[in-house]
Each structure stands twice: as C-alpha cells, then as structure tokens.
Amino acid sequence: xxxxxxxxxxxxPAIRFAVGIDxxxxxxxxxxxxxxxxxxxxxxxxxxxxxxxxGDSHVILPGLRHKFDLIYVDGDHTLEGALADCxxxxxxxxxxxxxxxxxxxxxxxxxxxxxxxxxxxDHGLTFTFHAAGYGVGELxx
Length: 141
Hints:
The chain has helices at residues 4-10, 36-43, 57-60, 79-89, 112-122; strands at residues 18-22, 50-54, 68-73, 93-102, 126-130, 136-140. It has 141 residues and is of the alpha/beta class.
C-alpha cells in the first residue's frame, strides 16, 4: 500500500516489469498514506517499470492473462481472504515461479502460517518459511 515491498523487489534490475494491485485504503477506512500518487515517487527511477491498478484483487486477478515469475501477496489477512488471494494468484504463476505470502506470523493473524502452508501442500507447491518481518512464506512450483 505504500510501495516499500515493491521498491525492494525492483532494486533487482532483472525485474523488468511489475504490477501492483491495491485498493490503497479507498473505501476501507484507510489512512490515506498509500495511494498510486504516493507510490510512484517512492519507487524513483523504477516507476517506469510499474503498472499500478486500483481495485479489489479478487475482482482484477481473475481477468489477468499474463504469467508472472514472482507474485507477492500482502492482501486480505482473513483466513478466507488469504486463501482466496492464493487461489486467485496460482493460475498466474509461471512454471518455476515463486509466490511470496506476507505476514504469516503476524500476532493478529496467527492462523495464516498453518493455513498457507497446508494450501501450498494441497496444491503441490514447496513451502519455505522465512522469518523476515512478520514472516514470509515462499511457495514454489
């Protein structure tokens, strides 16, 4: 929502293009800190390699047809929403691609780690946990 994760990914010059989908807090009582106008300057020169889409990922993702090498999920932190995020992203993940799911050990969302790990197993993906921030799950085809 604020562009920090995307900025970190785009530090790698091998990343040719990135797509960000978010509601930016619009209609969800957001703080107003995150919005497309704020994110582009945060990204600096890398902003020319980015497409930002405003909207609900559950609506937008099923309409995308491009396959991605890397998908970073940091969206709906409810159990149902997180699994829906994973389900929506899986068809867009290229063979050999990696899906990162953020906040798996967040103290307010203690159910996410086990649920995402089980989801990965059920879908034939390898799961590796990284204790960075509030925990990141790496799911690989």
